[in-house]
Each structure stands twice: as C-alpha cells, then as structure tokens.
Amino acid sequence: MFLIFGLRSKDKFLGSRLGHCEVCGATAAQSLIRRTTKFSLFFVPLFPVRPARYFVACTNCGRLRGAAAHEMAAA
C-alpha cells in the first residue's frame, strides 16, 4: 500500500497597485499576493498547515517582500 502525502503552497493574485520598490528604487506596479500552504493526501489539499502569508512583488525587478494583512486591506 502506498501513501502519498505532502505540502503544497499556492499563490493567489489579489490585485496590483502603483508603489515604490524598496529594492530597485523604481516606481512601478506592485502585485499583491496571498500564499497558503496546505497538507495534501493523494494530491488533494485537505487543510492549511500555517496561516496565510502576504507578499508584495515588484513588476520591475521581480523581488518579493513580506507584507502585513492590514497592508493588503488598505490596497
């Protein structure tokens, strides 16, 4: 008998906004991303194993930085 299990992270695009990148210094569109990690059994995601994490990605340089949930609500 085989038991196939693991963790899977999935990104969800929440929107974008115009902002200043802390890495490249350009004023460009910033993508807002929500990442969830779930436990999977036989390739079926069952339940989250950690709270959702939020990121802001610069469309100019591609760098991701962490963001707080309240920062996403303000966008």
From TrEMBL:
Pfam families per UniProt: Zn_ribbon_15
Cited InterPro entries: Zinc_ribbon_15
Domain (Zinc-ribbon): residue spans on this chain: 20-66
Name by which UniProt lists this protein: Zinc ribbon domain-containing protein
Organism: Paractinoplanes bogorensis
